[in-house]
Amino acid sequence: MKNDKVVILGIETSCDETACSIVCNGREVLSNVIASQADFHEKYGGVVPELASRMHVDAVFSVISESLDLAGLTLDDVDAVAVTYGPGLVGALLVGLSAAKGLCEVTGLPLVGVNHVKGHIAGNYISHGDLRPPFICLCVSGGTSAIIQVDDYCSMKYLGRTRDDAAGEALDKIARVIGLGYPGGPKMDKAAIGGNSEAYTFSRTHMLDTLDFSFSGIKTSALNQLNELKMKGDGFNLADFVASYQQHIANELVRNTIKAVEKTGVNTICLAGGVSANSFLRREIDRECENKNIRVFYPDLKLCTDNAAMIASAGYFEYINGKRMDLSLNAIPSLPLEE
Ligand code: KG4
Fold it and tell me: Which of 70, 85, 64 is nearest to 9 (CA)?
C-alpha cells in the first residue's frame, strides 16, 4: 500500500474475453484492457470452449503488460493480484488463474481469487462512487440469472435463480435461430428499434412462492412460433418479434426483482451482467422503480459485459477484508456465491 492507495491488478478469462485491469481503492480504474474473442466465435454461433482456452493463452500476457503500461505502473506498484476462479469454462478459467499464480510466485504478491458473479456486482461500485451495500442485485448474463441480496461487499446470498436457461442464453438462442448471429443480446437490442413490443405473446412459466426464474418455456414458445410461421410460409416482422421477446424477458426479470425488494425491505436495486446493458430491461426497471420509489443503479455499458475492472474491484473488497489464497487455488467451474 502506497499513500493509502491499494492497487489491484485484476485478471478475467472465464469465457471469451481475455482481460486485465488496474484499479485503485476498488473504484478508480487506471486501465481496463479487453481482448474479445466474440468475432472469432461468431462463425460457430457460440463460444467453443477449447478454442477459447487457446486464445486466452495467446493473449493473456500481452493484455497484462498493456494494462500495466496504460496505467503507467509496474508490478512493484501493485498490492495484490485478483483473478476469476469461477464460475466459468474450466479451461478458460485455468489460463487466467495460471497467469495470476505465475505473477504471484515471481513477485511474492498476494493472490485473491474472485467469484465472477461478485465481480459483475462490483462493476456498480466503479460506476457509482457513492454506492454502498445493502442492495438487491439482479445479475443477468450469459451464464447467470439471479436475484442476490448483497448485505455487504463480501457477504451476499441468492434469493432467486434460474431453474433452467440464463436470460442471456434465451436471448442468444433465439437470435441465432433468427440469423442475427452471436452474441445475440446486443444484436437483438439493435434489431428491436422501432418494433412493437406487444405484437407477439409468449407463454410464460407460472411459479408461485418463489423468486426463481424459468426461461426455457418462453424460449420454446418463441421457437414454436418461428417454426409455425416458417411452415406456413408467413413472413414476420423482425423488429416486432424481437421487441416482444425482449419485453417478455424484461418483465419476468423485473417482476421478481421488485418482489425481492418487497420481501426484504431493501429499497435499492442494482443491475449487473451482460444482459443489464439491455434497453428493454433498463426501461422496465426504471419505470417500476420510479412508480414504487425504489433507487436503481446499473453499471456503465462497458462494465456490463465481462471485464477485469470489475474483478479488480471485487478483489479489492476481498483483499481489505483479509482474503488471501494459496497458490494451489484451482478453477471451480460452478463456484457457489456463498464460498
Ligand atoms: O456478462 P457477460 O459478458 O458474460 C457472462 O458472464 O456470461 O454476458 C454475456 C451475455 C450474452 O448472453 C449477451 O448476449 C448478453 O450478455 N448481452 C446482452 C446485451 N449485451 C450483452 N443482452 C441483451 N441486450 C444487450 N444489449
Answer: 64
Q: Which pLDDT tens digit goes with each residue over 238-271?
A: 999 999 999 999 999 999 999 999 999 999 999 9
Distance CA 140, CA 303 (A): 13
Residue nearest to atom 24 of ligand 1 (CA): 278
Which of 116, 140, 141, 247 has the most ligand 1 atoms within 8 A of CB, as the residue to mutate?
141
Q: Is there a contact between 133 and 248 (Cβ–Cβ < 8 Å)?
A: no
Separation between Cα atoms, residue 122 and residue 141, nearest integer Å: 14
| CATH 3.30.420.40, domain 133-299, yes or no | yes
Cα 256 to Cα 145, 205, 210, 336: the distances in Å are: 11, 13, 8, 21
The protein residue whose alpha carbon is closest to atom 23 in ligand 1 is 185
| Domain formed by 7-121+304-320, architecture | 2-Layer Sandwich (3.30)
Q: Are 313 and 123 in contact (CB under 8 A)?
A: yes
